[in-house]
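Protocol step 4 of 6: structure prediction from sequence.
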Amino acid sequence: MDIDLSLPQPAVEAAPDGAAAFALAITGSGGAGAMRAGEILLEAASRAGLYGVMTRAMGPQIRGGEAAALLRLSPAPVSAPADRFDLLIAIDWDNFTRFTEEVPLGPTSLVLADPDQGPVPQPVADAGARVLPLPCKALVRKVAGGRANMVALGAAARLLGLPLALLEDVVAAQLGRKGDEAMAANRAALALGAAAELPELPHRLSPAADRAVRWTMSGNQATGLGVLAGGVRFVAAYPITPATEVLEWLAPALAETGGVLVQAEDELAAINMAIGGAFGGVPAMTATSGPGLALMTEALGLAVASETPLVVVDVMRGGPSTGIPTKSEQSDLDIALHGMHGDAPHLVLAPNGIGDCRRTAEWAVGLAETLQTPALVLSDQAMGQARAVLPPPPPATRTPGRRVAEPGTPGYLRYVVTDDGISPMARPGTPGGAHVADGLEHTPRGAPSAAARDHAAQLAKRARKLEGFDVGPDWADAEGEGNIAILTWGSPTAAAREAAARARALGIAVRVISLRLLLPAQPDRLAALLAGVDRALVVEQSHGRQFHRYLRAFYDLPAEVEVFARPGPLPIRPGEILDRLSHWEDAR
């Protein structure tokens, strides 16, 4: 059968610096190997001198259900989701309609689908994409022990112009332990996919000329690296999606650096173990997601009252309750800011990208240790479980660290009221450093007290140490000039930055301000960043506009404010933000 392989000319999207970016999706039922194919392709792109990001779309099933590897590749660093996909390779169509909205297609999109796996879903047909056959299952039957995902991977490499030998090297590195027969089958399946009758795409990605050092990592791995670099040597946690990979990465890394990870029986035990470890003198942390954070709030209050440093990483997912465990959302902001009872000053931080997870986590450890209070780090599934090829992320700004009581300090008072609110912390066993540390209000010595003067003095002390500390410039990232500002936080930052770059190319002057430190608020600093701004677009991924309400509570905003708020699991895309900016500009 003759197949028309001609394709319409696509309008190629660009990375923030103008370099071409290519978006592709590999989909299939759970267990079909779509994720593995995506990971191999991302690593091969890295070895070819490209940058890229791969996010995962999947259901909450242990096995089965839907799965998609969503990639965007470019010669320049790129991290925002694509507005639409240039290529979709469907190993099968099982459960595809569950995430159709997460794989936007258009008339310039190419779809390669196995004709033996059923008809093309109606949303794909409605998008006007060009559909061509790629009989993965029939081809792989020619290879004993072959896998359909390797056929799909070979086809993707051919279309992108990646050398087949490069993919074989990556497959050997990742799957070589399966033995020579499996590797021979994988190589044969790759070759079948690369040799399939495929069109020549109007554009291919050329490797970057600089050949700079690149890291390939997920946001959860970057978070683990960050807390380790910050000095954490004790971790207690209970597994929960999508935070578990933080713990999986940390377990061997801690063992190599003299630390310990303990898997507790539940989230309550985990955070109390971490508080105990920190009280014992070792920087400590735990990682969880929304349901686990809800269980930890009482113990967080104990850490505030006893002035015990602690880091809690919350890799957010869709809520409330069990919600959508495998999808991203920014809806834990309210509980992170206000979830504890009583006046409980604490730190809330949020990385604004996969690489920034490293710096923010490290900084959180330093701030928690310096200010002797818990620090909540709000990552999310979109960053945590995504993998990116990126420049080496920078380390965090150093902080003074824990103020430790010297042995034999005369008349040692654990909670002595000081000008900066920080009092020396004696490690257990320090001569002359015995004191009581619990959740009851107390005197400067630590003895329980219900006296109004003690309560007022300790409340003011705990607030003063956060309010008076100079956090420096890392509290937010700001770029660009103009009278329009995009205000955002967390994972939508990448889309906001790319939208702003496109807007500037159209003559719209816009700046992007992404907050990294949410508590304590920095009203004077934000006022300086907003100087000359008369319009602000607030971008966030929550249904209840939690970030907008936070800004209204703590900051003075320009007179004209619009909000682009959407819950998960759909990511906020650069083109959507640009549309908001363009329409806003045209309306004036």
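Step 5 (inspection) to follow. The first strand starts at residue 22 and ends at 29.
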